[in-house]
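User: Here's a chain of 345 residues. Predict its fold as tokens.
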Amino acid sequence: MASRRYIPSITLALVLAACTLSPAPSATQPNVNARATPDTASLRRSLAAALGGDFQIVRHELSSGLAERGGTFWLVHARPTRSGDFHLQYRYRWVDPVHPRDPLFTHIQHESYIRVGERGCGRRREAKEVCLGDTIILPFVLDRYTGHTFTLAYRGPSTPHPLAAEPLPARLVPAADSYPNPAAAQLTYLGASAYVMLHRVLGSTTVYSAMFEARAPGRFNLGLTVARPGLGTSAGSAGAGVPVIVVPRGQPVTVLLENEQVHSTNEVSGFSSHTGSQYLTTPLLLQPGDRVTLEFSRFTVRGRDHHPGAPGEPQVTPRIARLPFHLDTSQRFNAWVAPYLPRQP
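Assistant: Prediction complete.
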């Protein structure tokens, strides 16, 4: 019985000794893994001063990182007040969580280019072209970084895109009048085209795409699969499809910044690195007259020098399905734009 009381006593003594010897957290040594609540009010004042009268901040919010990119983002919804080309930059101090005293970089700079057209301007695919009246979501990385500064430069008038932003391919196979297209009320099927990518060794990959032209407002998912089974693999699933929203021309929409360049530097060693990042989304925001090309199949041949698009081979055509609108918010950065997509075009 005595031994049973003795063992817990020794254990308790060792625990108390470990607590006594463990150093208390130092107030002068910051925890690089800690994430303080961002001062968005101060950030907004700084950004508003940089935007000047060219963009108006409509709202802003914090968002946790997605699967594509972790961390905390500050999402600023800005509305342009004049057309033209703009150059946006922001910069902050880098914190290395692994080597805080000897970081690989000391500062990070992000830069992006924003083209703003007149109201009702022709938009490119995924509505990355911003028109007057639209709202663009600007993502800024916060995390544990500090010292954010912002600059915006006006680069001059922008060159407007034509309403039909995508010309017809030279080798487009026109659609037959009898070909079924359940989405014909909103999208006109113009035909299919094939693009051959030759391999270094004998063989090739043929990519098949379908071209559509927006006709009237609507909101649905477009399913594209191979109409002739056994040739090629489908690039899309008829069960999911591509989210499509056709809005009346000139109706304002909310879009996400397309891409940016990231320049990382170490101002002590002089080391630098250049990378790029994209904020991709899956919904297609179109206006009547806009054209879009979507891949629906690809076929790979290995070991012999011919492809299914060669003379004498049958053409691959898509099977088109009009599906209920659905947006997978777990894909890419869809969660950032989902609450602001047009509900009733």
